[in-house]
Amino acid sequence: MPHADTLDVLHHDDTRTRFTDVRYELHRNGIRIWSAEGEHAFTDVLMTQAYLQRESDK
């Protein structure tokens, strides 16, 4: 299950929902997200962007 420091969900009505420090699963009919606030499921997803900050090797 992928992890994201920041996850943006763009909905079909052009609204955005942002989550921080989450686990998520993409499905054919939407996305399911687990965050500190609980479990969320969206079916009106147009696009998602997930960001994961990594330590530099330098």
Structural summary, described in words:
This protein is 0% helix and 67% strand. With 58 residues, it is mostly beta strands. It has one domain (3-51): SH3 type barrels. It has a 5-stranded antiparallel beta sheet with strand order 4-3-2-1-5, with no helix packed on it. The chain starts with a strand and ends in a 7-residue tail after the last strand.
Write the topology of this structure.
Blueprint: E1 3-11, E2 16-27, E3 30-35, E4 38-42, E5 45-51
Antiparallel strand pairs: 1-2, 1-5, 2-3, 3-4
Largest sheet: 5 strands, antiparallel
Q: How many domain modules?
A: 1
From the helix content, strand content and strand pairing, which structural class follows? mainly beta
Low-confidence runs? none
CATH class: Mainly Beta
What is the residue-mean pLDDT, rounded to a whole number? 92
Shape type: globular
Bin the strand percentage: over 45%
CATH architecture: Roll
**Tally of contiguous helical segments:** 0
First-to-last CA distance: 28 Å
Helical residue percent band? under 10%
Computed Rg: 12 Å
At CATH level 3, the topology is: SH3 type barrels
The count of strands amounts to: 5
| Strand adjacency order, main sheet | 4-3-2-1-5
Descriptive labels:
58 residues, mainly beta, SH3 type barrels
Question: Could you write a compact summary of the structure shown?
Answer:
The chain has no helices and five strands.
